[in-house]
């Protein structure tokens, strides 16, 4: 069992930055690929970024490429999402997820563990 706890969400003006953190409970955190998803009201949950268990491979949705950076610190059992140049359309609840894979899967159904989510609101 892996428990995930997100933090770092909040209200920010367009063009601003936030850094989300996701702390995992399990010492075998480094055996899991990690990802950040988001869900806006009335929309499906979508993959934002993923990272392999070593941190050597990353994936980004086209909508966030060049603005968001995913990273992980396996010694701290934590994955991060640095979000820069935020836009109102980035407003959503952001979730971190863990899957027992080397590379981060693209499908939401491949992830076994989810955090409770953290709200990010970007004002125009």
Helix-strand layout with pairing:
Elements: E1 4-7, E2 10-13, E3 18-24, E4 33-39, E5 46-51, E6 58-60, E7 68-73, E8 78-83, E9 92-99, E10 113-114, E11 118-123
Parallel strand pairs: 2-11
Antiparallel strand pairs: 1-3, 3-8, 4-5, 4-9, 5-6, 7-8, 9-10, 9-11
Terminal Cα separation, in Å?
40 Å
Point out poorly predicted stretches. none
Mean pLDDT: 95
Number of beta strands? 11
Strand content: over 45%
What keyword list fits this structure?
11 strands, four-stranded antiparallel beta sheet, mainly beta, seven-stranded mixed beta sheet, 124 residues, 0% helix
Structure description:
The chain is mostly beta strands. It contains no helices and eleven strands. It has strands at 4-7, 10-13, 18-24, 33-39, 46-51, 58-60, 68-73, 78-83, 92-99, 113-114, 118-123. Strands 2, 4, 5, 6, 9, 10 and 11 form a seven-stranded mixed beta sheet that branches. Strands 1-3-8-7 form a four-stranded antiparallel beta sheet, with no helix packed on it. Strand 4 and strand 5 (46-51) form a beta hairpin. The termini are far apart. The model has no long low-confidence stretch (mean pLDDT 95).
Quick overview:
This protein is mainly β. The chain is built from no helices and 11 strands. Strands 2, 4, 5, 6, 9, 10 and 11 form a 7-stranded mixed beta sheet that branches. A 4-stranded antiparallel beta sheet has the order 1-3-8-7, with no helix packed on it.
């Amino acid at each position: 069992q892996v428990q995930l706890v997100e933090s770092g969400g909040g209200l920010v003006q367009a063009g601003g930055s936030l850094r989300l953190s996701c702390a995992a409970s399990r010492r075998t955190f480094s055996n899991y690929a990690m990802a950040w998803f988001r869900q806006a009201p009335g929309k499906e949950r979508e993959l934002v970024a993923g990272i392999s268990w070593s941190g050597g491979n990353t994936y980004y949705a086209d909508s966030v490429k060049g603005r968001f950076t995913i990273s992980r610190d396996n010694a701290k059992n934590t994955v991060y999402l640095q979000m820069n140049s935020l836009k109102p359309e980035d407003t959503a609840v952001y979730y971190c997820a863990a899957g027992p894979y080397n590379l981060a899967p693209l499908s939401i159904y491949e992830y076994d563990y989810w955090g409770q989510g953290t709200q990010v609101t970007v004002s125009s």
